[in-house]
Amino acid sequence: MLGKQTRRYGTLSLALVMAFAIYLMPAFVTDAMAKEAYAGQAFAEEAFAKEVLAEEAAAEGEGEPEIEWGQDVFYKDWEGNPLKGPVSGHPAPELGESDYNNYEFAPSRMILWMANQQHLYFGSFVLAVPIFCMLIEFIGIRTKEEDPIMSAKYDRLAHDLMKVSLTAYSWTAILGGILLFTFITLFPGFFKYMAGIFRPVMHVYALMFLAESGVLYVYYYGWDKMSADPFLKWIHCSLSVLLNLIGTVLMYLANSWATFMQAPGGIDEQGRFLGNIWHVIHSTLWNPVGVHRILGNIVFGGGIVGAYAAYHYLTAKTEEERAHYDWVCYVAMFICIFGLIPLPFAGYWLMKEVYAFRQQMGITLMGGIMAWLFIIQAVMIGLLFFGANSYLHNGMSRVKGAHRYMKYAKYMILLLIVCFTMWMTPHTIVMTPAELKAMGGAQHPIVGHFGVMSAKNTAVNLMITTTVLCFLLYQKANKKITVPWQTIGNCWLTAIFIGAAINIIFLGVYGYFLPANVRVGLSVPQVTTTLTTLFVGTAINISMFKDSESYGEIQWGTQSKVGTYAIFLLAISFTWLMGLMGYIRSAVRLFWHVTEVVRDNSVDAYTLTIGEAGKMLTFNTLFVWTQFVVVFWVASLTVKKGAAQEPEAVPVPAQQQQ
Amino acid sequence: MNKTFISFVVFVVTMLVFHNVVFPIMNIKEFSWVMNPYVYYLLIPITLIFINITLRLKPPVSLIALMVWVLGFYFYKYVLYPPIPWTLFITYMVMWSIGTFLYVSQDANTFREFRSPIVKTIIGEYKIARIVLFALLPVLVGWMTYQSIYPTFQEPVELRTVHPAPPATTKVHGKTWVLETSRNPYRVDEQDNYKNSFPFLDADKNEYMKNVTEGGSLFFQNCHYCHGDQLNGIGMFSHVFNPTPANFIDPGTIAMLRESFIFWRVAKGGPGLPNESTPWSSAMPPWEEHLSTEEMWKIILFEYWYTGWHPRTFDTEESYVGQWEKEGKPGGAH
Prior knowledge:
By secondary structure, chain A is mainly alpha-helical.
């Protein structure tokens, strides 16, 4: 029995690690493939160019050369010279007054922003839910033999989530249509240029949408039929993998438009397409944006499902309902936090690529006109970690045996607060001249050191490591470890965390004494250290549960209200944060539609004040949550109908069973 | 006597004694490892914990929360030196308050215990507390109103951005410089190779130190009045400027930037700052009107040499050696 216990944990961890590996794979594979393809491409193009030039030379005197060659604005050949390509498109237009339309009630830019953001929010949700379903269904299948009741419970949860996703899917498509029409009607000149370059991608995108719909319908409507037979059930689960793969491709294709606008490639200085569609898609920010969005989607989806469950938990009338939704909150938060932990690292990667693309863009973001928005972002990220930790503390406190670890909670909170203080201390402080004089200079001799990346990297890595530690303690809260090597295991765990903290702090301090380009590289060992605590720590922790005894099962339905409200905080903060970062990423182009190629000549080509941007973000957040409430309500109409068929038992999830 | 009340009195008395007696003793001008305000601060919670344990007072969660919050307030307001600006103080206190809340709400029991006196005060179980609270509230609101409408004559604060975003190109003395690719033509190698050489002393020994020396001379002729003779932004005129001159010692200034960025800033000064994020209020003159291109590059060379920072480069950039000598023109210019 206890062997099975370990396997259940193993299954869960394996499922999560696999899922992450699968979803991160496209980025790495495409990156690797891109490099190979790039090498091949460069050689092929050079050979092609020579061939064409030879032909032209042979036919000299017989008229103008037929093929015009342009220099790529981004891609370079082996010698570092701009890559050449045959001009295959029209130059970027000089947009004038007639290229922009507007309504009187609101600036076109605001309307487009709203349409775009709402579509992105829903797109993010419908891409996240299949990831959830895939994981949960997989866990359900794997636990079927050991615990059929629990397996059914997982399966039903995945099915219910898919039901909500189905409604949200149509909603997303409608919002996508609205966005498309907004582009065509309000920014026709710009859209014409984009459509000229991305024509084939747009068609493939539409076809992928069709494929996504097809698989989605088979997956959802075939659920009950395919559940009967174990083989068919595996096929059904595989469909979820396919669904996610198509969804990921869809997202990557759509990302290519945004990343092209921000950091174009595959065109010449005049904006003429140079014949290689892969170059246009695979511009420099494509991969980091893709990975960042996948992780962001997971956290966002987890937040929404968690908030939905939290609402039902707080309004539940029966014990059974409370227990069910408490458990759903747990599953959603588990996945959400798992996505949240690597998210900042993906963000760093993205920023590194932005700096490498244009120093100017990086400075505008981190030190220039967008810097204060980044400070707000730091606050929001801090709130996310506070929300996650608050949930974990409250969740842990109701587990029997947790008293052994609850005494450490206050130290973890203190560490979080200290790190958060470092994390969000701005480099340039807002102050009056009198305060400036009192401080003796623009930089404070003590807290001034927190304004640079060395301190911030250290702080965020320590915050994540603390969250990981909290999570490990939560896992072992009700376990009485009996393995003979428990002392060694605990020593290892302690050593890993203390070693990690020392290493992270050492690298952070060391960074102050290094040149900036080397210092940036230090974030890699810092991140590796943090991830080591996550993976090795979890592995050791789980291995120690073998043959463990229980202090008592979790009483689902007893989560404190504060812990439940923390989920709302997390979900709303993340929605706002997503909007904020999307705005920053987009607005950094300043007065360009496509950076340095298509200039924004509309009356809306200005950067909003922080207050105005904040109002817009808040409006978008409120608006999308109103829509989510409607979508969940629509989905609940069918849930109520089928409620009588729900199994009555409230099983204990695998993590807490003995 | 009520143990909670005793604990509260102990807290108040300890704080008063520490602030009025111990603080002046330990906060001496020349900091040492023991005699400094931070060691002093650590002694406060240690003393409080010690007294509470010795007297077995076991203060309730609400009182512990109050103590924790006040200790945070005390640190940021009185201990942290030099005093931090109001905006930062508010930010830190919000964070400290969130931390205190996380502490009291870590589980349902603690939170219940924390809420209990608040609820009892509001519903009237603690009659005197309620009377005092409800009498004090209007006074507090009145005082805050008074504070907010009382006229002050301070210059308003500005949300200043740290680094202006550079343009793609800049034209200096008739030449267009691409900032993305421009290099300091006098930078021959990483400066670590010259760490045992010194400008002025070794100026005649090699070309690099000669250039650094010339840059140093120019710096002290033109720049140090504002940027300071230690390049720390505290020059003799610096105190009259807002924003203050850049502190090159700080890891957040030249250490984070490419040399081409510094060149653009030096050449164009305050008037050449971009339109966004105005008003910049920078008093820096456009040095292209007073110095030659070569002189500006040499000053930049000196600034990096003196501070020990290396100019920012990116992974893909290779080191470059004396481009002017090789190409016969400034690197990146065309």
